[in-house]
Amino acid sequence: MKRILIASLLFAALGVQAQTTAQPTVATKAQVQKATPEERADMITEEMVKELALTPEQTTQVEQLNKDQAAALAQLQQAGLEPEAKKARAQVLREKYDNRMKSVLTAEQYEKFVAMRKAKRDAAMQKRQQVQAAPSSK
Fold first, then answer.
1. pTM, whole model, 2 decimals?
2. How far apart are alpha carbons 75 and 92 in whole angstroms?
3. Do 62 and 37 touch, CB atoms closer than 8 A?
4. Percent of the chain residues topping a pLDDT of 70
5. Where are the domains of the chain?
6. What are 21-25's contacts with CB under 8 Å, separation 24+?
7. Which helix or strand (DSSP H or E) is residue 47 part of?
8. Sign of CA dihedral 13, 113, 98, 38
9. What does the DSSP 8-state code read for residue 20?
10. In sequence order, which residues have a C-beta less than 8 Å from that of residue 41 and are 6 or more positions away?
């Protein structure tokens, strides 16, 4: 459940990788798992700055929102709640995050943010289905 929530946060906030860059801009799964909540928030913010063309003021606000969200999700993982309670609390946190993000971004940026999140979620779902469909080598 912890990995799902962390992955959901990452996939929700990271954009599609720019194909023209020499180095990958999207964090790998290993990097995300080893990262502290603050480091994850920084990775997410960096990707959003590149993909959404944020102004300096927006960057500061988005950075704080991402740090708050990452810390809240980390705290949720430490809370020891039942899976359904965690899921419900994570949904509340995600809705609050979305509302705050909507107030910071322009309508066009928010629309792109939502599309990026959906693309990440769809890619993760497809990958998960491929792994489940692959025959076990045991």
1. 0.69
2. 14
3. no
4. 73
5. 2-114
6. 25/50
7. helix 37-52
8. positive
9. T
10. 63, 66, 67, 69, 70, 71
Q: How far is CA 102 from CA 23, 97, 114, in A?
A: 30, 8, 10
Residues 68-124: pLDDT tens digits? 999 999 999 898 889 999 999 999 999 999 999 999 999 999 999 999 999 999 999
Question: How far is residue 101's CA from residue 94's CA, in Å, rounded to a whole number?
Answer: 10
Q: Amino acid identity of 31?
A: Q
Q: Rounded CA gap, 122 and 138, in Å?
A: 28
Q: Which residue has the tokens 């810390």?
A: 71
Residue 73 has which token pair?
């999700």
Residue 112: partners with Cβ closer than 8 Å, 6 or more residues away? 15, 51, 52
Tokens standing for residue 115: 């599309």
Burial of 111 (0-12, 13-18, 19+ CB in 10 A): exposed
Tokens 């705290």: give the residue. Answer: 75
